[in-house]
Description:
This protein is an alpha/beta fold.
Amino acid sequence: xxxxxxxxxxxxxxxxxxxxxxxxxxxxxxxxxxxxxxxxxxxxxxxxxxxxxxxxxxxxxxxxxxxxxxxxxxxxxxxxxxxxxxxxxxxxxxxxxxxxxxxxxxxxxxxxxxxxxxxxxxxxxxxxxxxxxxxxxxxxxxxxxxxxxxxxxxxxxxxxxxxxxxxxxxxxxxxxxxxxxxxxxxxxxxxxxxxxxxxxxxxxxxxxxxxxxxxxxxxxxxxxxxxxxxxxxxxxxxxxxxxxxxxxxxxxxxxxxxxxxxxxxxxxxxxxxxxxxxxxxxxxxxxxxxxxxxxxxxxxxxxxxxxxxxxxxxxxxxxxxxxxxxxxxxxxxxxxxxxxxxxxxxxxxxxxxxxxxxxxxxxxxxxxxxxxxxxxxxxxxxxxxxxxxxxxxxxxxxxxxxxxxxxxxxxxxxxxxxxxxxxxxxxxxxxxxxxxxxxxxxxxxxxxxxxxxxxxxxxxxxxxxxxxxxxxxxxxxxxxxxxxxxxxxxxxxxxxxxxxxxxxxxxxxxxxxxxxxxxxxxxxxxxxxxxxxxxxxxxxxxxxxxxxxxxxxxxxxxxxxxxxxxxxxxxxxxxxxxxxxxxxxxxxxxxxxxxxxxxxxxxxxxxxxxxxxxxxxxxxxxxxxxxxxxxxxxxxxxxxxxxxxxxxxxxxxxxxxxxxxxxxxxxxxxxxxxxxxxxxxxxxxxxxxxxxxxxxxxxxxxxxxxxxxxxxxxxxxxxxxxxxxxxxx
Length: 729
């Protein structure tokens, strides 16, 4: 492959110069709150049309429906899906602990509502195993068999099935209605992004765990037993154990085959859900709303990407919410899309949601006319239908080896979600899974990768020196980068790793500085006392000496000698003990800061012209503590913080950056920032980060700009990088 090269020639840009060159403006292109409110209240015919089409999508595509292109495919697809709705609806109703006929209702009304308000062309709305088992766990918890025991003949106790089933229907309808309200509200406030917190490994692990619950719930129909039901954590284990004991130990004398039973003909009148049950199902309704939407939008986006159209996530929330809300009035339970039916709808030629209407007609005919034909259908047959439809979910166990190879953190999320769903039941399992998934995100940002960057010779690239062999550190300059945003959870670690990676321990340096200053002060006081003592001796000698002139001259010479000795250790008010090291080829490697200015704060002006302008070379005295001596011996004179990965700053990160400038400045190390995004610069300005001690001239557009600035100041530009502002790739 032919090599390519490019040349860039420009001046070195700090933030102040960038504002001038790029003509940074203070205007805002975003409308104000008042303008947005005014715009939202403005009414016009085009705006009204746009609003109607966005809230009722069927008005946008149905008038342009092409019978020639779509009718045949939608007809075949609708009939195929409708036939699937019949057994699945009745089977999944058993998962919800309801009579099979309510599964048929659920396959009818919500599908028609979604036809009007949905934006996906291929998904099949209706009953789904995971949602059904979530509904069933609530209905059995709030309406257990023990609450409906009545006295039978011959003094026996029996369960009033009619009363129990009627109450369970009320619970399911109340839960479904409330879940729909949650979904509508989330959609209206444009909260569709909430599902992004449910990662794909979480959703797949949760559905796999739910599939296990579904299988266990069908064991009683397969074996023809009626074990006691358990709720709460570890309920899955108790079910399994009870079923095995009941079946294989012959504890049940019932050997008749349990069948579907009566399927009443006709449709029932709508009835408002029981509002007194809302407080008891509030948390479950929210969980059902989130899980149902997560499954629905994931399938919808999959088919939309495949066929090249867009699915509105917020409108999908509204459509699903309306399907559940309306269904709650018609004795339906919560719905979502089904993978198996959606695949059939797409593969048999379905192009629009007209296929859903046709499938609803098939279900309606069954409910009105031929429902009685299914009354003698054994429930064991419905259980086998459930097992067959769970095949796709159990294939998700193949995620484990795949995630082991690709991403072990996602694997951990999958396993924790699966295990918590199995052991803690569906509601608690979902809560634990989301909490754990959030923790992995926090830990990833709290424990980022830190690196020291080096220059690739002949380029303006700065790469991790531990990863790239050709990336070489620039003598005297440390370039430090974090892989994530600096904020309150990792700000302290950022400072610690900066000291570790740069080899500069601020605490030891400041301690050594204080000791050096104290030692200097003691030496000065000692010299003063010695001078005074000598002066007294000389005065006494003058009185007793006959050679007064000679004594006077000697005294004046001693007076001049003492300040000269003192100047050998001090210049001005501080200590300057800087040594310029030289490499083998004779070029400067940077300055060794072995002692420091006595001020504890930075200069009010930009310290670009400060300690490095002194050419004096003085040998430092040895420290008594060998470790502290080593801590002070550093050839670093400048540190560049690459914050290009930082997307925002908070008060903690601002304070951390300020303390870095202050503390490192006290030991004559100059700090620069590079790669700061415009939004972060604005946040720093708002937080009062920039000042006389931290001017904007310390902030550079790129790391390369900062390096060139430092090297130009030191007169080392051409040596270190072998490049100037004219960079060749």
